[in-house]
């Protein structure tokens, strides 16, 4: 990063210029170039419509969690021990870790196939933060916590539904 005052080259992310001490913090903030980007950078997850999360205990059978997800038509369930979030179980976890011809889902505890200690988001996080975490981690569902307690799950579907209203028609590609 080049200092606008003295033209000293600084390490990317530096807070102050090494040459003159100029404040560099505001220089590496992304700026919105259009309405869509403005929403990505400023809309908070607390603004999204999302359902209250489904939850199970770590020792519950996977079959119970799958049945609950089927009934609620959702793709994930939070794993709660006491009041503490200890994991998340998704349909993908079930398919990749437990499904099989001779597997009894009643005999497998949720804790054996859940994703432990999941990445979390907060109400004040932006859409861009959520998309970044989902992209980097390969997640489609991330618990949203408030004051340490899970309050809902944000899915990639929730994000797409919210931002779809801000995506304007793009010109047709040139053949």
SSE topology:
Blueprint lengths: L34 H8 L12 E2 L5 H11 L3 E6 L2 E7 H7 L12 H4 L1 E2 L4 E2 L4 H11 L3 E6 L2 E7 H8 L12
Parallel strand pairs: 1-2, 5-6
Antiparallel strand pairs: 2-3, 3-4, 6-7
Task: Give an overview of the whole structure.
It is a single chain. The chain has helices at residues 35-42, 62-72, 91-97, 110-113, 127-137, 156-163, and strands at 55-56, 76-81, 84-90, 115-116, 121-122, 141-146, 149-155. The chain is an alpha/beta fold. The chain has a domain at 45-165: CBS-domain. A four-stranded mixed β-sheet has the order 1-2-3-4. Helix 5 links the parallel strand 5 and strand 6 (141-146). The longest helix is centred in the middle third of the chain and has 11 residues, at 62-72.
Key terms:
single chain, 175 residues, CBS-domain, 4-stranded mixed β-sheet, 3-stranded mixed β-sheet, 6 helices, 28% helix
Q: State the total count of DSSP E strands.
A: 7
Strand content: 15-25%
How much helix, percentage-wise, in residues?
Answer: 25-40%
Broad shape: elongated
CATH architecture of the domain at 45-165: Roll
The CATH homologous superfamily of the domain at 45-165 is called CBS-domain
Describe the sheet with the most strands.
Answer: 4 strands, mixed
């Amino acid at each position: 990063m080049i200092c606008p005052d003295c033209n000293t080259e600084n390490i990317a992310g530096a807070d102050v210029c090494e040459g003159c001490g100029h404040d560099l913090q505001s220089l590496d903030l992304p700026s919105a170039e259009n309405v869509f980007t403005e929403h990505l950078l400023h809309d908070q997850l607390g603004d999204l419509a999302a359902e209250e999360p489904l939850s199970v205990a770590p020792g519950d059978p996977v079959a119970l969690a799958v049945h609950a997800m089927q009934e609620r038509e959702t793709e994930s369930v939070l794993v709660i021990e006491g009041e503490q979030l200890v994991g998340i179980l998704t349909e993908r976890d079930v398919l990749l870790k437990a499904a099989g011809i001779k597997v009894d889902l009643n005999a497998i505890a949720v804790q054996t196939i859940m994703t432990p200690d999941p990445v979390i988001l907060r109400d004040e996080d932006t859409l861009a933060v959520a998309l970044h975490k989902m992209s980097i981690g390969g997640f489609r569902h991330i618990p949203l916590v408030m004051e340490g307690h899970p309050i809902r799950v944000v899915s990639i579907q929730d994000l797409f539904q919210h931002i779809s209203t801000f995506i304007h028609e793009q010109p047709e590609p040139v053949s």
